[in-house]
Specification:
The complex is a heterodimer of chains A (506) and B (360).
Chain A: H1 38-45, E1 52-53, H2 58-74, H3 106-114, H4 118-133, E2 138-142, E3 144-145, E4 152-157, E5 170-174, E6 181-183, H5 184-197, E7 201-204, E8 211-216, H6 218-230, E9 246-247, H7 261-271, H8 273-277, E10 287-290, H9 299-302, E11 305-312, E12 316-317, H10 319-329, H11 331-337, E13 347-350, E14 353-356, H12 366-370, E15 375-376, E16 380-387, E17 401-407, H13 412-432, H14 439-446, H15 448-455, H16 480-483
Parallel strand pairs in A: 9-10, 10-11
Antiparallel strand pairs in A: 1-3, 2-4, 4-5, 5-8, 7-8, 11-16, 12-15, 13-14, 16-17
Chain B: H1 17-20, H2 23-27, E1 32-39, E2 42-47, E3 52-59, E4 63-65, H3 66-79, E5 83-86, E6 91-96, H4 102-113, H5 144-153, H6 155-159, E7 170-173, E8 185-190, E9 196-197, H7 207-213, E10 219-223, E11 229-233, H8 243-247, E12 251-252, E13 260-265, E14 280-287, H9 294-310, H10 317-333
Parallel strand pairs in B: 7-8
Antiparallel strand pairs in B: 1-2, 2-3, 3-6, 5-6, 8-13, 9-12, 10-11, 13-14
Helix pairs in contact in B: 3-4, 9-10
Classes of the chains: A alpha+beta (506), B alpha+beta (360).
The complex binds protoporphyrin IX containing FE and iron/sulfur cluster (SF4) (4 copies).
Protoporphyrin IX containing FE (HEM) sits between chains A (140, 153, 206-208, 210, 212, 286, 302, 390-391, 393, 438) and B (130-131, 136, 138, 177, 179, 246).
Chain lengths: 506, 360
Amino acid sequence: MGGGFRRVYPENRPDHGGINKDEGLGESGARRPHVASLQQFGGLLESKRVYLHLLVNPYSCAINFAFRYIKRIGWQNQMKGSGMSSENKINTSMIDDLESGPWPSFVKDLKSLATKKPAVGQLLGQLNQSYEDRWNYWQGTVLNVDGYGGGVIARYSELAEKYPDIAQFHTIRIIPPAGWVYSTATLRELCDIWEKHSAGIIQLHGMTGDILLLGSDNKSTFDAAEELMEHGWDLGGSGAALRTLACCVGQARCEMALIDTMAIQTHITNTYISELHRPEFPYKYKFKISGCANDCACAMQRSDMPIIGTWRGPMQIDQAEVGKFVDGHGADFVIDNVITRCPTNCISLKDNQIEVDDDNCVRCMHCINVMHKALKPGKDRGATILIGGKRTLKIGDTMSSVLVPFMKLQTEEDWEKLTDLVERIWEFWGEHALEHERVGEFINRIGLGAFLDGVGLEPHPEMITAPRSNPYIKFEELAPGMLEGESGHDPAVVNEEVESMESTNS
Amino acid sequence: MARAKKMAPRDNGAPDYKKNLHPLMAKNYGKWSYHEKLRPGVLVHGAENGDRLYTVRAGSPRTLSVDKVRQICDIADKYCQGHLRFTSRANVEFLLANEADIDPLIKEVNETLGFPVGGTGHSISNIVHTQGWLHCNLPGTDAAGSVKALMDLLYEEFVTDDSLPARVKISASCCQINCGGQADISINLQHHHPPRIKPEGVGVCELPKVVAICPVAAIRPRQDETGKTTLEVVDEKCMYCGACHGQCPTMEIRDAKTDTLSIWLGGKTASTRKGPSFMRLAVWGLPNNTPRWPEVGAAVRKILDVYKQTGRPYERIGEWVDRIGWKRFFELTGFPFTKYHIDDSPLARSTFNTSSHVRL
Ligand code: HEM
Ligand code: SF4
Ligand code: SF4
Ligand code: SF4
Ligand code: SF4
């Protein structure tokens, strides 16, 4: 890949969101220190000392300030009875109800933790207050460990007078081992470090996939991060950055896995660790990797770039096992639950034998899931790469759509094709997206056709379910200028109009 | 490798997964050939060479004390050769080399940890959720507590694997940013009026950003009496999405008196059969009733009852409603169908019935 990832993000793009600003990198006055060159980073980080910076940022401080003020005047009633500090006086009457019942209770567990960590008792007190008032008492800002533009979610309690030990009660996001498989030694190390520095709460895991460590203050966040990093752990992503990746268990324990999800996840994480730590994208970017269409990592709609294992060529069929299955379950079961459920009607049962029209099989995995001893994916394996999934915020949920129908991902050379594509996407999206615009929103705005031009991919019929029905089309090749020999022009990516709005309704 | 050298001295990257694998996982990596469900919550994976790795899946509350994590480790040290994993739905999976260890392990998981074993096959697995009142700055309701309350009600469906036509995945979201994902059943908080701008706070965030984040351009700058620039929201345009509240805390969108919960059905992320699908509004206006949200529990129970009676094997909730139709869904469940169920977004027409197909 030669010189590595070319950074073309506009240096002057405004900051993201009033959050996630790190002034801790020493560039006085620089509003976006995280776009500083890598050399600068290296130099700055040489000290090996990690500083934790409570946001020096004027906005965030102001948020805190203003909010304390607003709270006082606006929601005073919540503050009465303050000054309660001793643990036995903490009222948990409402959440006590959540200690009973068959499902394990986090309240019970945290109460026992509270016997040695008073902050946890106060946390429960505040939670109880929330239950009584149906109101939230956390303010959020971001706190940065030096050299990192994210990874810490800072929380300040609005009830700090009543619950002083949770005045600062932060979360550190930590990158887990791929597939969330642990040795107990790994987990115990994490527990020991975390208990030493904090209130000792661990969430396994956050929905992005991080290990979440809850309950450190401004200073201990710094100490814990330092010690965690000494032991080889690393902070997860937050803000307008690459996020911590997630993948299914894959080849470690699943016969369906068509790609090595854990290796690919680790490779992408380590290749782009800088993009993960230092927010410099228009907005967040998530990869999730599933070994097959069952998508145990929920990649399709929870990531900007799902990587889903698939295969080319014939499915493997063990007709002896088919025979056993049909004998065991009956032909009706197979017809009702396998044959008629195939989305493309490409599988049939004849004389207790399964036949698959492989050209029409869309690799949906259903028949294989039901008859997993008799049917297996084919041998020529790779992945489908999709783009643009996200959750609700702003434009509503989007599902990812096909970008590369098939890509081999078995070797490191194959992975380079993937990272090359990723870098082209980041360049194009980084240059042209609006602030706070996920790549799926960006594609909605500029059109998939323009996006393909921008990232240098050829259109492929597998990218769509049907061609457009809308006849208003700007054929570039047939435009008068082009016919008269003018050369092509760049895709109209800055055009804010969504030209193909109607066609999406078909 | 594309980039052997790390970008900065402290960039450790991801922990080495290979060091964490169970020995049987490492030995049979990429060489698994089948799996079987031995009983609810217990799987065995067979490798090409005949090795068998047993998995016992247990539901956890996700939010754990360090001591609880250590207890989990104690059990894994005793029976699992020191290895375990977590699922994307916060279940713990104990990995065992010896079949004989399954029963004693389950006993300890039940008794010491208090975790139920299940969540495999056609069950209701753990509920995907985020922080809620425990640790987010935006929530209108709780996450961990409402999940606990609901899982208490759905316990039987967790510990069995054949009580439902197909697996049912549930998610919970505590504001309209909806961190909980698409799911067969999703419980989401709903706001009911535009943000109330706290005038004292205006200016703490960069106003142009707050203006820019609104998806429907409902926020605009305004000069107040003193000539200071502040913001106003055009009420008719605002769709109460809360995007501005995430951007700036002065755009207070929550309201303890009016926020409600709604239930959405039919989200699916797997590409199995007809592929992924979005969830759809089914029930709205349920009260945000702490500490156990009984109205939400009752509505979920009603949906599950009807699904159990009329769903076909391997038919996820979305596929089931597609087959029987929403008309029949509302009939069978007794939930009212209202004008609010009809989409009014730019994509609305794609959800209209543009055929003469009706169920009479
Ligand atoms: C600091 C508190 C948090 C805030 C303010 C926050 C904010 C958001 C926002 C704004 C979105 C919507 C993004 C979009 O669609 O454009 C989102 C989605 C999401 N968040 Fe968070 N989040 C927070 C904490 C977390 C945590 C702790 C996790 C788990 C590690 C998490 C996991 C997710 C997931 C899985 C989604 C949906 C998937 C997606 O669209 O990317 N969030 N969050
Ligand atoms: S997504 Fe496929 S390969 Fe991955 S764990 Fe699920 S079934 Fe196995
Ligand atoms: S994998 Fe899916 S599409 Fe292919 S034959 Fe089986 S059911 Fe049909
Ligand atoms: S759904 Fe909203 S309130 Fe709940 S954790 Fe996510 S951002 Fe916070
Ligand atoms: S709630 Fe949503 S629609 Fe209303 S003003 Fe805020 S961002 Fe705009």
